[in-house]
Amino acid sequence: MAQCVQSVQEFIQDSFVPLVAALCSEEAERLTRRNNLSFAELVRPFCRLTSEVHMRDPNNQLHIIKNLKIAVNNIITHPPQPGAIRKLLHDVVSVSQPAEGLVANVITAGDYDLNISATTPWFESYRECFLQSMPASDHEFLNHYVACMLVVSSSEPDPVEQFLKLSQEQHRIQHSNEYSYPKWFIPNTLKYYVLLHDVSTGEEQRADSIYEEMKQRYGTQGCYLLKINSRVSNRGADEQIPDPWSQYLQKNTIQNQDSYEDYTVSNKNTDHLISDGTDTEIKDGLSNNFKTHPLQLDHPSGSLDSTDYMKASTSLQDSKKSNSGTPHGACLTLTDHDRIRQFIQEFTFRGLLPHIEKTIRQLNDQLISRKGLSRSLFFATKKWFSGSKVPEKSINELKNTSGLLYPPEAPELQIRKMADLCFLVQHYELAYSCYHTAKKDFLNDQAMLYAAGALEMAAVSAFLQPGAPRPYPAHYMETAIQTYRDICKNMVLAERCVLLSAEILKSQSKYSEAAALLIRLTSEDSDLRSALLLEQAAHCFINMKSPMVRKFAFHMILAGHRFSKAGQKKHALRCYCQAMQVYKGKGWSLAEDHINFTIGRQSFTLRQLDNAVSAFRHILINDSKQPPAQQGAFLREYLYVYKNATQLSPDGPLPQLPLPYINSSATRVFFGHDRRPAEGEKQAATHVSLDQEYDSESSQQWKELEEQIVAVINKGTVPSNFQPTQFCLNRYSDNSKFPLAVIEEPITVEVSFRNPLKVPLLLTDLSLLWKFQPKDFSAKHDGETKEQGTCDEDMVGTEAIAEFLINSEETKVARLKLFPHQTGELHILGVVYNLGSVQGAVSLDGIDPSIGLQTGKFVSNGLSVRGRQDLEIQGPRLNNTKEEKTSIKYGPDRRLDPIITEEMPLLEVFFINFPTGLLCGEIRKAYVEFVNVSKCPLTALKVVSKHPEFFTFGGNTAALTPLSPSASENCSAYKTVVTDPTSVRTALLSSASSADFGVGMGGSPEVIQVPLPDAVLLPGASVQLPMWLRGPDEEGVHEINFLFYYESIKKHSKMCHRVLRHTAVICTSRSLHVRATVCRSNALGDEEGRGDNMLLFVDVENINTSETGVKEFHIVQVSSNSKHWKLQKSINISGDKDTKLASRERAKLCFKAVRCKNSEENYTFADIVFGNEQIISSASPCADFFFQSLSSEFKRTQVQSHAHASQRAMKQSFDETVRLIQRCSEVDLNIVVLWKAYVVEDSKQLILEGQHHVALNTVGKEAFSFPQKQELPETVLLKFFRPENTPVPARPTPEQLSNLIKTSLHYPESFNHSFHQKSLCLVPVTLLLSNCSQAVVDVMIDLRHKPTSSEALEIHGSFTWLGQTQYKLQLKGQEVYSLQLKACFVHTGVYNLGTPRVFAKLVDQVTLFETSQQNSMPALIIINNI
Q1: 3-class secondary structure, 527
Q2: Rounded to two decimals, what is the model's pTM?
Q3: pLDDT at position 611
């Protein structure tokens, strides 16, 4: 049980006190009414004695009474009605609530920290009121009147006569059969005569004389003069007199009320409190000063439905207000207070206690004389207890004799009367003896009602005995309770037993037994009693040594349920809230749902709408395990409560709704219009849309492309304030900066909703909630902040979704749009919508589908409430500094705070006839349409791509060279010219500058200027440009990103440029594989007499598979592009005019290349045509793709060579020398192989065309049309080394040196000589020396060299050079020198003339790089004899 203010001893003593009746004359009552009090109320605060009282027991032993209290009541001649008592108790409990701001008691039990009210004042008030309102009964005398005060005013004409009348009236009430109520203790009731004197108006001398007369008539012990109303009414109001009556009157207001409202507690099973059969109306003939009992109801008690029961304590609260507003004791001074206190003491000392002492003696003497026992009961008790014990029969054996009545003079009742008197004056030992004796007599007579009463009081007396000579006989109480309840059917007396016993057990820390006792008395006949007892049982469980938390919670729930049935909504709510502390967050979701639901219901009934909304909110947002039907009912209740809550404050802020869940971090924001769909052959740029998944790698590529183009625009550097364009912001994008949006362009916010319930949710009128601050970025003037409202549509337009249905447990995204009409700062706060349920979505089996708070509250199409949810996005966790790493800090996420900038142009791009599949190297012509859909012109249109070799818009020459008719007939992408048949296999020359094709300008080759006419695209204008595409050299699927960049003509402070993205997906299949090698021709002179001609071998293989439908490839032309070399003619062994390659066939072509005039700017294009049409390779698109492949090749080699740049600077002179020698073996020749492919598709023959590029850099080294994949070794040993600057190799490789000087021997293949005539044969030989480098070279020729190997001697034989055997020459750059030699032979044979050793060094070097220049091919001569 909860803690009580009083101790258990004080509680029991105050529950059983001597009762004194008060009978007043009308004049006396008028005097007390001047203080707004009756006489009984006037003396009530002073009824407790402040000093000890002494009296003697029958054995003449002195007995001390401490802290005695008496009760003075007006005489009421009608017993209280049960309905009125129920109402009284109901109101007492209802009005007693936990104090506001009371600090709850925190109990820690295991894992629980519970806030529980330590005291339960409502229970104590109930208990006190219950015990005071118990009607008097015949089987006990505790609440019978012991004495009667007769009160008369001194101002009456004949007070003595009035006393006589009152005395006769009291005698008539007690002794005539006309009145059965109230009950009197003994026939000879003590009468105490009180003369009331009003000091302010009465004559004091007359009062004293009357009092003297009273003393002579009634004796000094039997009368008293009480002077009151000393206070003069006109005295200053500033004098504060204490009001001791208020606390008593508030507690007992109902006892003093004359009438009641016609209502009672909603409890259909009425409490049968009174079983004495005194419910019949009794007509009385009393004078006006006798009131009917205040618990008498004027009308039969009605019953109200608990749902409509709102003001449970109206009457009590009203009376409280009236009492608290009315001053009591206004005419009394503190002296008067002391006089009243003194009066009560005098009455008790001189009148009441002597009377009780005398009565006890008389009863004791009567009992001794009747029983014929020894003189005193004290000496008799031992004999009674020890000898001749009668075995007690069990309750079940006893027959039901509760109806047995003893006559008033029966000795058994006299013992009981004596016991009760002793108990009232705290003589507990004697009382116990008497109760014990009476109990045995009653049990012998089987008078069970009397026996139960004796057992009850015997147990209490045993407990209250000082020094505790015997333990508390709890079994007495058990028997008494069982007898009252089961045999006598008197629940009131059983309840009194339980209240007393539970308090005693609690004081002995026997909480478990107390709880069991309290629970046992809960029944269906009284919900209020059951609720209070269950609550006290719950407190017993929590106050145990090892608190039983879950039992506490369970019984609190039961108590809350019974409080609810009893109409005590506030107490019910409090019980459920206290129990919720235990069940919350423990995974008992169904229990939590039940408690929250009940809390919501009770809060709603009490008009605590915020609490109701909160409770229903918890039911919905927890992961509910309820069936769909129940969830639907919960949702409807919530909506109904919410609607009522919002109606109270219709102008207040929109409330936060709990459903559906919003995954704020998954919110995506998209800036710009939706992408247009493709129209026929027109395909819109893919750009960015909300339907695309975020790819961090792709996002990084786009960012790099934009940085690249911005760097080119800004002359190589990216500005510090550069902010990459982000069209779609999500949880992965960089949201640390405020995003930029353009005025009049929509902002789409994608919000992810999740419905956790098993019933669908319907959102209507769903739109975004925003805040906008207008700013003119050009004028630097800030406007006022505007929140969303109807008047602000001219600033930001809001699009609403009329209906948005989310099915059960579904996650669904809504795309909401805003249309900014002004520049400024926009803040998207959240979403606003009407939340409703779909009616009829869930059919309830056998259940009324309109389960709600009240039937019929829901309209047929469902109920909805308007509210909002905020979008609160947490930024990324910061992890850069030490402080951030050691603490949890989050950066900003500004995706919902865009800045609306000034008007910008908006570009749309469409691709016409854009292919999806190409052969490797295939050339296809498409068109691109650029449309400016904004209201301002755009300029500086550029496109950037990581694959510039894939496409071209054509060079500057494209407009100057119109297409030839034949080209347009064949729909060729090339510019072609019909050739003269005589020029077949001979080079046709042309030239072009790389500047014409955007290469070599120092800019980035990936950034391509789009050739717009006038370089401006006006608003609404569109332009179509041709675009040539070339299939990538590697087969597979290629994603090629285009980033279109453009600017406004007007410069803006916030947004400098805009971009448009397009991703083209091209699937390429294999076509041709081209390899090429170049080697120096042995013939040092050509037809024109110049040196340096080379042979070019081109190997073409058809690696296409027949799946693509390609029948065969035709090689139609081979072109060369170089600043230094050109193809001269084709050397074809066979006489075929055309080269056809079917699947897996190869062809080898041979060409002669010669050096051309050196040009720093222009490239020389040489076309060798195999067909009838020459493709002009120096025009678009052939030259475009050549230059792009050249630049990408250059970029590859540049990356490789860049690694050594720092090391090269160490020895610059050394490096120059090596470079000169290296250049001798380098060749700058590029080959373009142009082809046609014949494809059969859908029984039609198509002709595809394309080109492959091969870049030849080194003499003798094979080059390919696409880079070869390097095969990695399977296992590589891991090596640890210190990186050092590896020096540049000091000596060039032998391969490089062998190309410095090229030698060639000119001699007759066979020589005839007559050795008979002349023994020596002299043959003239010419040694041609060609300097391949640009520098001056010193050459030394040594003819003394002899072959060392015996094999060479055997094969070739030996000969001798005649004349000078060592020459030293100096050759200028590219010089060819002829040296005449003579070889001497002595006999016939085959000889190798390639024996001269040639040494070479650069002029400005000492002896470095001197090495042998050996010709790899043998120079054989045949010497014949004639």
Answers
A1: helix
A2: 0.70
A3: 81
